[in-house]
Amino acid sequence: MQTPHAKNVRIKRRYAHYLEEAERMAPTSVDQALAAIAAFEASTGGRDFAKFRIEQARRFKRQLEEQTNEKTGKPLAKSTVYARLMAVKRFVHWLAGQPGYKSKITYSDADYFNPSANDGRIATATRERPAPTIEQIRHVIETMPAGSDIEKRDRAVIAFILLTGARDDAVASLRLKHVDLDRRRLYQDAREVRTKNRKTFSSLFFPVGDDIEAIIADWIAHLKATLLFGPDDPLFPATKIGLKDGLFAPAGLDRTHWKNADSIRRIFKEGCTSAGLPYFHPHSVRRTLVQLGERVCRTPEDFKAWSQNLGHEQVLTTFVSYGTVGSDRQAAIMDSLRSGRGAGTMNDAALMEDMRRLLEKHVSMAKA
User: Second label for 323, Cα 20 to 30 Å away, from 178, 206, 221, 229?
Assistant: First the structure.
């Protein structure tokens, strides 16, 4: 086993503090950056970073191109290679300004970690991401059993994400007090909920059906009346593990939160399998809701409210990150336009002008 270079260990620790405190990166992002740096360090044989040579960057790139995925046995994805190269590039660029390194490393040295232009375009290309239809999600919910406490919880999890569009990690950390059934409101308090970028915001239930709301209402009533849960208890408690016939097995619900969203993804996967559908992950439901909004929203203000309900500060985020038109829908729209019929709901000239102005406003805000 290679002995760690003490000087490298110290500078990596300083860099980790820099990412956490100055760049305000999440711990998981810092860990990913350090893992990429460790891979580069291993490729140099653990040499002192201050003895950096351009050939080391070239060798590291060749090794990444030749490396295979441990699970699939296939070459690493271009996006994976790109992410690792960029993590090391940022580290070397930072090193160039540090005492003891700036006389030996130049800022331009970091550029040698750039992938080829073609590989960079492949890695960063925007690709169509499939999303389930409302009908498919409903089918999964309808086919799920709801006899035991665990089964009730699992069905309610999928119904809740459809109803609110909340991210899976946030859902895993929600408490009963965060849901207001009377006002149809979800309050995501970043002090207690693991929201993205630790943003606090309120959202209202999406119009996906009274039956979906009823599932959540019944679940919350079950938690309060039957399991005697209070406001600070988890909305979706973790599974309690006990002994059955000398083996560990599920034994009802605990009063603790899930530590992460892994269990929610498992629930989605098992639900899709039981329903005879391909697996769709929890986050894809947000894309489904965006597509629903594109059909039901009649004005730019409508869509702005829909966007805010997903936690987006700018409607442009909803359009760019979630609003890509699917290939089937794209073909239908183009066929309609070719025949002169028009395909969208927002085809009024004044309405389109309002949308154009709204987009221009948000583009200018994003550039500011």
Answer: 178
Distance CA 86, CA 113 (A): 7
Alpha-carbon span 286 to 288, nearest angstrom: 5
**Can you read off the two tokens belonging to residue 358?**
């709204």
Looking at the fold, whether 232 and 351 belong to one and the same domain comes out as: no
Give the CATH number of the domain where residue 199 resides. 1.10.443.10
Q: Which residue has the tokens 């996906």?
A: 208
pLDDT tens digits, one per residue of 179-199: 999 999 999 999 999 998 888
Report pLDDT digits (tens) over 233-263. 999 999 998 777 677 777 789 999 999 999 9
| Structural domain span for residue 308 | 286-367
pTM, to two decimals = 0.72
How far apart (Å, rounded) are the C-alpha atoms in residues 253 and 151?
A: 10
**DSSP calls for 93-105:** HHHTTSTTTTTT-
Q: Which tokens is 224 given?
A: 């309060």
| Domain finish residue from 124, 152, 181 | 124
Contact 206, 184 (CB under 8 A): no
Helix axes 284-296, 134-143, angle to 10 degrees: 130
Give the residue among 367, 358, 353 at the shortest CA–CA distance from 305: 358
